[in-house]
Fold this sequence. Notes:
The chain has 674 residues and is of the alpha+beta class. 37% of the residues lie in helices and 20% in strands. The longest helix is centred in the N-terminal third of the chain and has 21 residues, at 7-27. The N and C termini lie far apart (80 Å). Residues 83-85, 115, 117-118, 122, 138, 177, 229, 291, 310, 313, 315 line the site of 2-(butylsulfanyl)adenosine.
Amino acid sequence: MPKRPSNEKAINELREEIRRHEDLYYLHENPEISDREYDELIEKLRAREEQSPQLITPDSPTQRVGGRPAEGFPEFAHRRPMLSLDNSYSIEELRAFDERCRKLAEGTAPDYVAELKIDGLSLSIHYEDGLFVRGVTRGDGSRGEDVTANVRTIRSVPLRLRSGAAKVAREIEVRGEAYLSRKVFERINAEREEDGESRFANPRNAASGAIRQLDPAMVAKRRLEMFAYDALAGERKPFATQWEALDWMESEGCRVNPNRRLCKSIDEVIEFCNAMELKRDKLGYEIDGVVVKVNSTALQDEFGATGKAPRWAIAYKYAARQATTQVLDVILQVGRTGALTPVAVLAPVQLGGVTVSRSTLHNEDEIERLGLRIGDWVLIERGGDVIPKVLKVVESKRTGREKKFQMPERCPECKGRVSRPEGEVLSRCVAADCPAQLIGRLLLFGSRRAMRIEGLGDALAEQLIAKKIVRDVADLYSLKLDNLTALERMAEKSASNVLAQIEASKARDLWHLIYGLGIRHVGERTAGILARHFGSLERLGRATVAELDDIHEIGLTMAQSIRDWFDDPGNARLCRRLREAGVRTESEKQTRSGGTEGNERFAGKQFVLTGTLPGMSRDEARALVEASGGRVTSSVSKKTDFVVAGAEPGSKLDKAQQLGVAVIDEAEFKKMLG
Ligand code: IVH
């Protein structure tokens, strides 16, 4: 029987593995595993060290407060150690923290301050007589790197505190979290890709890379920002409470995150944590949880710290959004246009509260960019949108048995020919009767934004196509009750419901029909514009490329694609059959636009949307403008009539003010809409 490895051997192996990940994280800003997975490794090591305490060495990763100082910057010893936080991953753990605090506070319930845990890197900013003199990274918690010139480039770090600073102390230290907004993060990654460099896995790594740039001019370009969360006078906290410290920093011109709450009980803290989790994706920056702190400074001092973290604070971490897993296979999905989309089949893994087992790889170029092979281990992430994406390949896990993905010459669904036209990223199945494409077309036609045929889902569409009862969307209108009841899982009641839905769809307005035909490049918006402009399917079908191209918002590619679609004899026949079946092919009213029953209140007006609107999403606002005949553009110019500004509006607002364009808020916008 094989001998179980000794605890010592397991400890040494774990330490080595952790150190390798630390180097990847801190020195190369190129992690292979998520924070949660890193924490789990540390916990595993800690558990083993507890079994054999004689094996604990001072240089074990469990004994360290933070990362290693980077080379290239002078070191600076922190006046008060920059501790890290203990983590909690459940409400029960938060309640246990509350219990501990009550015990330490001898039975009284302390107030807590709940703040967002910004996902960046902590900085210590020093002021003397109110003037910025130094910026230091956290480093290993007791010594950091002096990155003054770089910190100076962070616009949200005031170079001079406002007047009241001197009253508090001559020397003041503000601590906070430097971070990159999602937008800037995306920009940096796009630039890196263009330069042939690898993408940063997350904004935190990009921020930490930015602050360690040796050239401050490069740092300035990275547009780092900071939220302040602590104030010190030497080793001492100068305020009686954390809440006061936050307010004071704000009054001195520091940027303090507005999402914070003074809580009288742990229940209030929990409420805040839940509310913020819902808001998480709407913030312009990444957070990974909430930091809960005992409000009273006197109590904080009383509670003290264990080696690594204070007893008076805890981080409540949201479900991890990154994980590593293995690519078991790469399969191809055939869309309604015949596009073949490669999809990674993953070993199932928990991510942000759901089990993930697939991730789109978009196209061959993306597979190439990632350097991904079947059998590879990959780091995946699930962002605000539910679809997970592959961030990178973990090359160190390669065994040599991984296989390259090869686009097949034949469609996996119908064995039709596959072609990739020059200059296009997608390969397509060119067979006209490919069942996967037919199913896709039926599903689009029946979808909510198109002809809204409820009950026409995957299962029904698949059967109708497989049994050749339906060959195109016009065939739907000659379906009989018998055709449907003969299918699996289709009782008479559901069959007649589906038929009623199909009948009702005949009266949908023209733009729904145009959208439902699935003409390449014609989305809902374009369908609305076309319906409004031509008023009937026949007139649209007769339009020349030049006529189409003349329409505002219709470009040449779109125009050509529309013309090509109607030039196809099969499609021309399809339109005729739809009309003969009684489907409305005329617009109900020429003034209607895609989407909502609209008016022409905003006819000819140009809008720009910026910032987060309190009561509606950008898409909703856009739909409202368009339904009233207006247009939404992405940048502000002299032609812009209105800028609708919400919270954190960004540079578009500045531009509007420079150009004297009217700026309105959501309330005014709604008033204008009537
Ligand atoms: S308080 C002893 N407040 O989280 C108190 N930290 O995991 C430690 N962080 O090193 C810091 N947002 O980099 C605090 N509102 C916040 C924070 C925050 C982010 C970071 C900070 C710290 C790490 C601990």
